[in-house]
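PROTEIN ENTRY
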Amino acid sequence: MSGVEIITFGCRLNAFESDVIRRAAGEAGLANAVIVNTCAVTAEAERQARQAIRRARREHPEARIIVTGCAATLAPQRYAALVEVDEVLDNEAKLRAASYVGPHSPPAGAGGPPSPAVRERASKPLSRTAGEGGSLRSSERGEGRRARAYLQVQQGCDHRCTFCIIPYARGPSRSVPLDAIVAEARTLVAGGAREIVLTGVDLTAYGADLPAGPTLGQMARHLLAVVPELPRLRLSSLDPSEIDEDIWALFASEPRLMPHLHLSLQAGDDLILKRMKRRHSRAQAIAAAARARAARPEVMIGADLIAGFPTESEDMFRRSLDIVAECGLAFLHVFPYSPRPGTPAARMPQLDPTIVRERAARLRAAGAAALAAALAARIGKMAEILIEAPGRGRADCYADVRFDHMAAVSVIRRMRFVGADGQHLIGVPA
């Protein structure tokens, strides 16, 4: 190989950062390299990353293999010890062009949570860090111009959910200043983006660390006001207990804010939520979904759910299963619980892995049925579709739309839905 291949695991934030990495590596003139951007959310994500590292070495024996991301930040020596790996970079270093100029020594340390020095570096806003290495932005790539773009506005997390290791890898919450967000949004729109997705580790924490303390809703309102050329704005995962009144007001009144919410629920049982150290209750989650549907009846709602959390009984799990229907969820991200060393939940009584897998499968089946029903209910209706690639687009409600007619990429077209196949809507020009 002569170029740079980037293999990304995990969340949209990692996808965003992989685009920053690509730009940083390009500025550095890096070639003949594979960069693996790891995730630490589950043991399965780490297993897949190790598998990808081994495969990369087999397929590219002469390439420089660089490992980075959350798993590499938390346990640098574990990855440096792999014979296939040439270099390990933490989450802060991976965004700088200087990190890709010449070989570097593997980081010191013996694994576990990052050192105080690493945590101190991670506390700097990504806007500042990414400025050294390229850009704040990333995007979903279709053919032709980029139709949808991610814009990271927040990094890190101040909360300590008992199952989550990510705050140790990402550092404390910090927000990108509003003027930097506006400038990047204008650049993205000028480059062809018709939709921007605001993203972060704990998105609803946006602004608390900034001098004026703007809320996420205030920031989004300002962004839409001063960038009128942006047709569509979407929010990524939200904590239902921290959705501020400005978000709700904007959601109800601004058609350019897409009728789609993704809620960080994790469970539907109050005792499990308490043991997870989540900040919302089952009732709050259901109320948030009902409020969204009252404000925008066309809304589609997604959620993250964890199956098989320690001490979860069948009745407790049943309440998570039931919340799919009670919240009217259409898009589920299901995670089988995986103990993360160093987290409180890892010390709790664990369930049999067979039970965890079985419950995850039941949740996924419920999610698939819910999505199929939600799509079928839209047949005969019309919506604005952003064309992402030939024959494929994204509805305002986030549904994936397929069509046979010709349409230019990165434009918005009104379509009528004439069918659904369980995963996609079928559209024709309205």
Summary: Confidence is low (pLDDT under 50) at residues 104-145. Residues 302 and 331 are 4 Å apart (CA to CA).
